[in-house]
Amino acid sequence: MFKKMMIGMVAAGMMCAATSVMAAPGKTYQVTGPVLELTDTTIVVEKGKEKWEIARTADTKVKGDLKVGAKVTIEYTMTATDVTVKALKEAAPKAK
Predict the structure, then answer these.
(1) 50-71, pLDDT tens digit by residue?
(2) How far is CA 52 from the centre of its chain?
């Protein structure tokens, strides 16, 4: 009986670990506006007075005729590619 209970606990633990590894992807965002520039690797969209340059790959799904001047809505995510941790600055000693 004890052996079956241990096997069940190990199986449950493995399922919990697998679930945390397959966590949902990061938050998605979107930008809408006319396409100003278009290449195989980028789409530049005007939002208000700002230009938004969004990277794209061969895996980017495109629905419709994507060309300069077309009004588009782009859904994207933000993913860190490099993180540098800086040392904390120590507080200056207080004067007496």
Answers:
(1) 999 999 999 999 999 999 999 9
(2) 16
